[in-house]
Amino acid sequence: MLEVENVTKTYGSGDTAFQALKGVTFTIHEGEFVAIMGPSGSGKSTLMHILGCLDTPSSGTYRLSGKDVSQLEDDELAEIRNQHIGFVFQSFNLLPRTTVVRNTMLPLVYAGVSEDERLSRAHRALASAGLDETHFEHKSNELSGGQIQRVAIARALVNDPTMILADEPTGNLDTKTGEIVLGTFDALNKEQGRTIILITHEHEVAEHADRIITLRDGVIVDDSKTHTRRRVTRTS
Fold this sequence. Notes:
Elements: E1 2-11, E2 18-28, E3 33-37, H1 44-51, E4 59-64, E5 67-68, H2 74-84, E6 85-89, H3 100-110, H4 115-128, H5 145-157, E7 163-167, H6 175-192, E8 195-200, H7 203-206, E9 211-216, E10 219-225
Parallel strand pairs: 3-8, 3-9, 6-7, 7-8
Antiparallel strand pairs: 1-2, 1-4, 4-5, 9-10
Helix pairs in contact: 3-4, 3-5, 4-5, 5-6
């Protein structure tokens, strides 16, 4: 589903050039749950931006669902993001005085989907993300951190993306709440077959995935299956 071949990314030029990625190659298949981890400066954020079609590589090839997106223009990348990628961020990025349902519907507004269909799809996505229906009409600033992140997950699901790209999704949550959110990703992967790519610097978080790709100084230093995938129960 996702092929990265000898991808490099260089910022600046001449004496000030900095190579953030140095020939990265890997494949992620449909239905995999993969964690990409590494310390600060490892290149994982740069790689995340490329995988999310927020940036393009300096060289190499990136194919998503068979399409080479390495050198697309900004408007073409925006279309790919809208159709194929669901983003979940550490900072949630929800509108604080807007209801849960309307926050979830937002990507569908940009996609030109009718209001009735937007509402139906938002309700399905929220249910898939494990949020109780009693919270659907609450404003996002009336929810707990874990509930807010579930709304963010639902918003990522609402366009039925090819993959979910989660950037440090538990970074602003306490340990217990983070476990609940990771349990939601686990259920989406195992029960619905969703492809999930989780960006993190924490090994304990990465162990929730089936496979860990480890970056250091712009290169992959390890790519291996987790020996025992941690199981998390999804609770309220």
